[in-house]
Specification:
The structure holds two protein chains of two kinds. Chain A has helices at residues 12-21, 34-39, 75-79, 82-87, 89-96, 101-106, 109-115, 122-128, 142-145, 212-220, 245-264, and strands at residues 5-8, 25-28, 47-50, 60-62, 66-70, 132-135, 139-141, 146-148, 151-152, 160-166, 170-177, 184-193, 196-202, 209-210. Chain A is α+β, with helices and mostly antiparallel strands. By secondary structure, chain B is an alpha+beta fold. Chain B is 34% helix and 17% strand. Classes of the chains: A alpha+beta, B alpha+beta. The complex binds flavin-adenine dinucleotide (FAD) and FE2/S2 (inorganic) cluster (FES) (2 copies). One FE2/S2 (inorganic) cluster binds at residues 99-105, 136-139 of chain B. Flavin-adenine dinucleotide sits between chains A (26-34, 36, 51, 71, 98-99, 103, 106-108, 110-112, 114-115, 117, 120-122, 154, 159-160, 182-183) and B (44-45, 62).
Amino acid sequence: MYAFNYQKAKSVADAAAALAKNPDAKALAGGQSLIAAMKLRLAAPAAVVDLGGVAELRGIKSDGKNLVVGAMTRHSEVVFSDDVRKAIPALAHLAGEIGDRMVRNMGTLGGSIAHNDPAADYPAAVLGLGATVETNKRKIAADDFFKGLYETALEPGELITSVSFPVPKRAGYVKFKQPASRFALVGVFVADTGSGVRVAVTGAGPCVFRVPEMEKALASKFAPESVANIRIPDKGLNSDIHASAEYRAHLVTVMAKRAVQAALG
Amino acid sequence: MPVKVSMTVNGKPVAAEVEERTLLVTFIRENLRLTGTHVGCDTAQCGACTIHMNGNAVKACNMLAMQAEGADILTIEGVAAADGTLHPMQEAFREHHALQCGFCTPGMVMSAIDLVKRHPKPTEAVVRAELDGNFCRCTGYHNIVKAILDAAPKVAAMR
Ligand SMILES: Cc1cc2nc3c(=O)[nH]c(=O)nc-3n(C[C@H](O)[C@H](O)[C@H](O)COP(=O)(O)OP(=O)(O)OC[C@H]3O[C@@H](n4cnc5c(N)ncnc54)[C@H](O)[C@@H]3O)c2cc1C
Ligand code: FES
Ligand code: FES
């Protein structure tokens, strides 16, 4: 590993100040993506600002209407949280599908969505539930947050503090795992919310996206057969040794059907 | 620039001057000379470097030593009792012949202890699913799964 500076932040304000002072610095959450990227020089920040000691970024709160998860909350805390299991069981299930137990003990919600890996799981829940990403500067609607391949609406130095998930009537997430990496080859999150149905797809394209045609069909009848014959175009989808774009398009329909089934319980 | 890092490892306070880029696994192996924690892949895939930080299993190759500042670390060297009596998970691995070359074993045992802590009565399916962060290139996993299923109630009885 190349040499860099390390700083442990005491608070969000402290971290923001350190990042503002040094444009070549990066926030460090669990390091589950960043350390690996630094070893490969895919990322090479001159300094890292560790958020691991910032208590205000951790924790889960539920008021029945919204479930608010702090940016530094580990995946395993979401898996085993009674609040999450009660309010949005699909979210606890999704967190339990991320990587392996050791990765889940370190990886965080904020790190996952800031990184915005095209095959990451959390972006599907954030977009699928129509969540709001809160930063140290503003609130960003999920529809405006995910911008493209590893790209988000975050400005340099801007820190995610928490994500507020509106509690849906029902929701389901089903993922077809890339067998070696365990990331989503295709994952589909379906939510029947107070304000309509949302369908979010991860793994298939360069960035998580919604499928309006499926949402419309499910709004009139929330059942697996409503999406069974909806096939998304494969143009622009990811194609690699693991799966062709055509196969991914096919999987979107299959995973969507299963996600609706999962939401129905 | 060297920085000071301190933590508790296997019940003993330790401190050292390290470079900021030092990985936790490097600190454990090279500074503390606790070489039971292995490095297989160095890319967070294989689980050979699994240790416990504040009671949770993590991959020591995928984090900085500084991220463990002040933490309570348990490595495979700290698992057996002070008099050398093996931990029930270690004993079960021996009993069931759950290792061949032994390279994956320290990580397997550390992961397995964490597994049965989270799933005190695991089914075989749960054990297999929860082992997906630990690779073994020798055993074919069968005996590892048997050992963990056998040890689970004994580990639960320890607490
Ligand atoms: C073996 C393995 C398997 C995995 N499998 C999966 C999988 O199946 N599905 C999946 O979704 N993920 C998977 N992951 C990734 C994992 O979920 C990571 O937790 C996640 O990518 C982010 O890591 P982190 O929270 O440790 O953040 P870090 O790696 O510390 O940071 C990631 C990025 O986010 C930025 N960042 C972190 N926190 C904030 C914040 N609060 N505000 C602004 N920016 C921030 C950092 O600067 C950095 O650019 C896997 C990882 C590994 C190692
Ligand atoms: S050496 Fe850490 S996971 Fe392989
Ligand atoms: S016993 Fe050889 S790798 Fe597992």
